[in-house]
Amino acid sequence: MAKIALFGATGTIGSRVLREALDRGHQVTAVVRDPAKVTEQHPNLTVTTGDVLDPASVTEAARGRDVVVSAVGGGDGPGHLATIEPAAKSLVEGLRALGDEAPRLVAVGGAGSLRTPDGKQVWDAEGLPEFLLQIMHAHGDALDFYRTVSDVRWTNISPAGLIEPGERTGTYRTALDDLVVDADGKSRISAEDYAVALIDEIETPKHVGERFTVGD
Ligand SMILES: NC(=O)c1ccc[n+]([C@@H]2O[C@H](COP(=O)([O-])OP(=O)(O)OC[C@H]3O[C@@H](n4cnc5c(N)ncnc54)[C@H](OP(=O)(O)O)[C@@H]3O)[C@@H](O)[C@H]2O)c1
């Protein structure tokens, strides 16, 4: 059983991570801006107030935990630019304050920086709308930052090109920096199977200090 502090528990992906963690017997503290938004009730769930952009809030949430998970998002493009890399920096600063006692960090990333079969990156595709490019590059900037960090045990998990609520099959494929695609060239994962992969990584760490991606 791991003690997990979870930022973003009210979100599309974070709520699946919360459910998967609880179903597998982990103890979760949901760190949210508005506790009233957490409808889930479970003996292993505690809800506390916090803001991922406040390093002191991260330190407080992380103290005594095994893992901090961040599944935060910023809504639209400008919101992501104001949230994702700043959150990465706040998470790392907040964890550094705990020194050797700091838990590991597992953060939800983005697909934009992944390599495509033609050798380009997802964000190089023609015709992508500006808001989506902003979201992709917000995650790319956060990943660039994580890659400079060696004193905090971080893992960044990029979803497939498309992630949406769906079925929990319990199976998935992973890669490091290459987009996972199916036989039709499509890249997708259900939010439920993404959560399975994230909790698997917590239970059996394989990617400390690197990014990996999950597809079906
Ligand atoms: N294919 C892809 O690469 C792909 C696709 C989808 C999503 N994603 C990424 O996955 C992440 C999660 O996406 P999602 O769709 O689950 O997002 P979402 O439904 O919009 O949820 C975002 C969560 O972040 C929380 N949050 C935002 N700012 C916060 C702050 N300052 N402190 C604490 N919590 C904060 C929100 O809490 P409140 O309830 O307080 O607002 C909410 O729980 C995003 O970063 C998104 O870009 C990637």
UniProtKB/TrEMBL annotation:
<dbReference type="InterPro" id="IPR016040">
    <property type="entry name" value="NAD(P)-bd_dom"/>
</dbReference>
<dbReference type="InterPro" id="IPR036291">
    <property type="entry name" value="NAD(P)-bd_dom_sf"/>
</dbReference>
<feature type="domain" description="NAD(P)-binding">
    <location>
        <begin position="8"/>
        <end position="201"/>
    </location>
</feature>
<dbReference type="InterPro" id="IPR051606">
    <property type="entry name" value="Polyketide_Oxido-like"/>
</dbReference>
<protein>
    <submittedName>
        <fullName>NAD(P)H-binding protein</fullName>
    </submittedName>
</protein>
<dbReference type="GO" id="GO:0016646">
    <property type="term" value="F:oxidoreductase activity, acting on the CH-NH group of donors, NAD or NADP as acceptor"/>
</dbReference>
<dbReference type="Pfam" id="PF13460">
    <property type="entry name" value="NAD_binding_10"/>
</dbReference>
